[in-house]
Amino acid sequence: MKRCDTLVDIGRRQFLRGAGVATVGAATAIVTLPAPEARAATPLARVSYPSNRLANIADLKVDEAFDVAYPDDDAPGVLIKLGRAVPGGVGPDGDIVGFTTLCPHKGYLLNFNAADRTLNCPGHYSRFDCEAGGQQVWGHATQNLPQYAMRVDEKGDIYAEGVDELLHGRLSNVL
Amino acid sequence: MAYKRQIDRLPIIPANAREQTVVCHFCIVGCGYKAYSWDANTQGSTAPGENTFGVDLAVQQGADTEAWYAPSMYNVVKQDGRDVHLVIKPDAGCVVNSGLGSVRGARMAETMYSRARNTQLQRLTDPLVWRYGQMQPTSWEDALDLVARVTAAVIKDQGEDGLIVSAFDHGGAGGGYENTWGTGKLYFGAMKVKNIRIHNRPAYNSEVHGTRDMGVGELNNAYEDAELADTIVAVGTNALETQTNYFLNHWVPNLRGTSLDKKRTMMPDEPHAPAKIIIVDPRRTVTVNACEVEAGKENVLHLAINSGTDLALFNAIFTHIADQGWTDRAFIDASTAGSQGATADVSGPRQRGLQPRPPDQLRGRPRRQPHVDRGCRRDHGP
């Protein structure tokens, strides 16, 4: 029986080889049909962020929160000049940072506390360290505070170009 | 630099995802969560008809929204042998937490057993035995043999009273012995040991040792009591950290005064004010701070007793209550034996000498309907 099966297989392959010319013809016909355009739907690994001018260095004073919004008007945030170089800090002194002000726990609006340079939540007392990349000092969020990737041009204009954690209230940072 | 996931979007839960109501498997509070799962190859979209929330996810959602989940609430796990997306997020409809998530429960998905995300590496697969200066994996035969030989030697040398087991006791939705089921069966069921303690206590007792000696068992109140009480008495508990949503969702409304309407509706025949709170704890915890923020310092009494003097404090309070005659003699006589002696004992000179301070600080506090919470210290269990 075994031998018999093998012969059947050989015969099947023989049959397919013999039909080669016809197969090529059919394939050519298929290619001419309109195929779904896969390339247009190719997703990116991360969302594409706009490069938005948020302020000029001249607008900022040390330890004062400057209200901004990024990546769109419905996503409030702040720029803070800390007076000393910190992680994620930009500008000539490496001391300008930008964060969302939506608490990643329940989305309440954070307030800047200049005394210890933290962003504080009035809802459930969570606190985030502006000098340490938005590290949660204490609180209920399961992520550190989303921080802006920023650059400063030769005119002193400050641009945000990305966010490093998911913003509260949206399942894609760019809607 | 703070840890950042660099995750800036999450898969959207489709409208036809499997939805299950679950309870958090960490602390004793028992917060409700919703677990959504759907096939790895499918996804929802921002269109209201194509996601489980029925809302337009292409716009910013507000504070307290149900239609958002953090990266920690997402994972890829196997169900019936198939990879599925999993989201476990706080249940806004649960009366315990009303949509609030703690740093424990809001991480349930992230910490689920997932070969796709490597969390299986964090699971204990073999018994560990302390050998050569470190915990070493070994076989069940070897581990149980060691337990048997040590146990037999102790009993032979000191008798059964000399055998004291120190066990870990935790886990299983809403607390209990679930993830140490085998230990429980061995020591309670098979060996019936006389002495056992659990991870954070000298015996298998309440964490607030004095209260049970005074006849007050733990976990004897409804969470709603904390919304209605005139005064909350919190003994040895840092509830904001260890029973987060019980504190945030049930104590805070009373301290803020936002449960006043409920108090007036349920108890219309008495005056009501926002709650006052007495916290007995050697430490000034975040709970103390949060209570002061919500209720005002004038409504918070932090009794920072010396460690180990809680029973003396309770005796002092007991004495004061008895001295003032705030007792229901008929009820006590019908419910207890020798209560006259108890009053005499705690009023006696020996106990007076133990009192760390006369209870002057307590005088003048409201005395109706005290709500006593005996929560946890570093622990989350009962």
TrEMBL record, chain A:
Residues 66-159 form the Rieske domain. Keywords: 2Fe-2S, Iron, Iron-sulfur, Metal-binding, Oxidoreductase. Coiled coil: none annotated. The keyword Oxidoreductase applies. This is Arsenite oxidase subunit AioB. Its EC number is 1.20.9.1. GO terms for molecular function: 2 iron, 2 sulfur cluster binding; arsenate reductase (azurin) activity; metal ion binding.
From TrEMBL, chain B:
Keywords: Iron, Iron-sulfur, Metal-binding, Oxidoreductase. Residues 123-328 form the Molybdopterin oxidoreductase domain. Residues 24-119 form the Arsenite oxidase subunit AioA/Iodate reductase subunit IdrA 3Fe-4S cluster domain. InterPro entries: AioA/IdrA_3Fe-4S (IPR041632), AioA/IdrA_lsu (IPR014066), Mopterin_OxRdtase (IPR006656), Prok_molybdopt-oxidoreductase (IPR050123). It comes from the Bacteria. Its EC number is 1.20.9.1. Residues 339-382 are annotated as: Disordered. GO terms for cellular component: membrane. This is Arsenite oxidase subunit AioA. It comes from Methylobrevis pamukkalensis. The gene is aioA_2.
